[in-house]
């Protein structure tokens, strides 16, 4: 077992293990200065000192340099205050060089040796002249990094269709794979407007309950399939996978239909293995007609 402190660099961001400094006592949300591959960075304690198995560690384990001082906090806040002006200057430079790119966010390195700009673009961008222009303006090293539409939503945030802050910006440290198959498994409409997030891609929350629906879907009949019920043969109209109820229609022998609900365990049906194979083939992170 190895002693670590769990560190976060932003709310809702990925959590990292760092080696505690001997003699320091850490509390949750305490600001600290840590050493990373990009140099010194300002961060917060997500979880105080704890022990984790050796196989959970990716060596070498970076150290916590110190608990942040008042001077460190003031420096960090000063960098945050300069971000809007840096964003505006960069946007003006992008327009000046007539580049097809959209600025998303910027970040000042804590040690002051670099400014990192994030942008999106539908194609490859030649931004060499832009970097030179920005370097001469800010008198520091400039780095531009292209990100995807999901990353853009994570940086900018916003209110999702459910009325809550976007999962990627609020409580999702890492993106999870989502697919059209998940929407099908959960019985959701395949209308892109119903299952897409602000980024225009499939909603991240499709993955939250997918394990449950994937397991239950193997235990319920297919829609429009023929099943046996206590009242005779019937056609499946819908399936409620939470209540485990099957709605069916039964021929009343007079040209009409009788609709009834039955618990799944009272319905006899044969699993359609061909349909299952087709579902497994549709495991794409794309929207219909995207």
List the helices and strands and how they pair.
Blueprint: E1 2-8, E2 15-18, E3 31-36, E4 39-52, E5 64-67, H1 70-96, E6 102-108, E7 114-120, H2 128-138, E8 141-146, H3 149-156, H4 167-170, H5 180-185, H6 192-195, H7 210-216, E9 226-229, E10 232-240, E11 245-251, E12 257-263, H8 273-281
Parallel strand pairs: 7-8
Antiparallel strand pairs: 1-2, 1-4, 3-4, 3-5, 6-7, 9-10, 10-11, 11-12
Tell me what the structure shows.
This protein is an alpha+beta fold and 290 residues long. 26% of the residues lie in helices and 28% in strands. It contains eight helices and twelve strands. It has helices at 70-96, 128-138, 149-156, 167-170, 180-185, 192-195, 210-216, 273-281; strands at 2-8, 15-18, 31-36, 39-52, 64-67, 102-108, 114-120, 141-146, 226-229, 232-240, 245-251, 257-263. The strands form three sheets. It has a five-stranded antiparallel beta sheet with strand order 2-1-4-3-5. Strands 9-10-11-12 form a four-stranded antiparallel beta sheet, with no helix packed on it. A three-stranded mixed beta sheet has the order 6-7-8, sandwiched between helices. Helix 2 (128-138) links the parallel strand 7 and strand 8. The longest helix has 27 residues, at 70-96. The two termini are 48 Å apart. Mean pLDDT is 87; it is low at 272-286.
């Amino acid at each position: 077992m190895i002693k670590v402190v769990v560190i976060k660099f932003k709310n809702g961001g990925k959590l990292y293990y760092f080696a505690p400094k001997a003699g320091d006592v850490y509390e949750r949300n305490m600001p600290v200065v840590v050493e990373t591959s990009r140099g010194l960075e300002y961060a917060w304690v997500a979880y105080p000192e704890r022990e984790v198995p050796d196989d959970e560690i990716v060596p070498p384990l970076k150290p916590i340099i110190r608990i942040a001082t008042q001077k460190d906090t003031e420096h960090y806040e000063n960098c945050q205050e300069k971000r809007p002006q840096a964003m505006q200057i960069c946007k003006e430079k992008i327009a000046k060089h007539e580049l097809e790119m959209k600025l998303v966010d910027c970040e000042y390195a804590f040690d002051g040796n670099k400014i990192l700009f994030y942008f999106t673009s539908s194609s490859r961008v030649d931004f060499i002249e832009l970097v030179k222009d920005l370097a001469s303006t800010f008198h520091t090293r400039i780095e531009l990094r292209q990100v995807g539409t999901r990353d853009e939503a994570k940086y900018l945030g916003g209110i999702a269709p459910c009325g809550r802050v976007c999962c990627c910006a609020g409580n999702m440290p890492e993106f999870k794979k989502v697919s059209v198959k998940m929407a099908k498994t959960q019985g959701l409409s395949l209308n892109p407007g119903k299952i897409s997030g602000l980024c225009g891609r499939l909603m991240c929350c499709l993955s939250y309950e997918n394990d449950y629906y994937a397991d239950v879907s193997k235990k319920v009949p297919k829609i429009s399939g023929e099943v046996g019920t206590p009242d005779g043969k019937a056609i499946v109209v819908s399936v409620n996978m939470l209540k485990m109820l099957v709605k069916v229609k039964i021929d009343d022998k007079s040209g009409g239909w009788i609709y009834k609900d039955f618990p799944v365990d009272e319905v006899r049906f044969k699993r359609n293995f061909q349909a299952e194979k087709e579902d497994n083939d549709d495991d794409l992170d794309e929207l219909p007609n995207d």
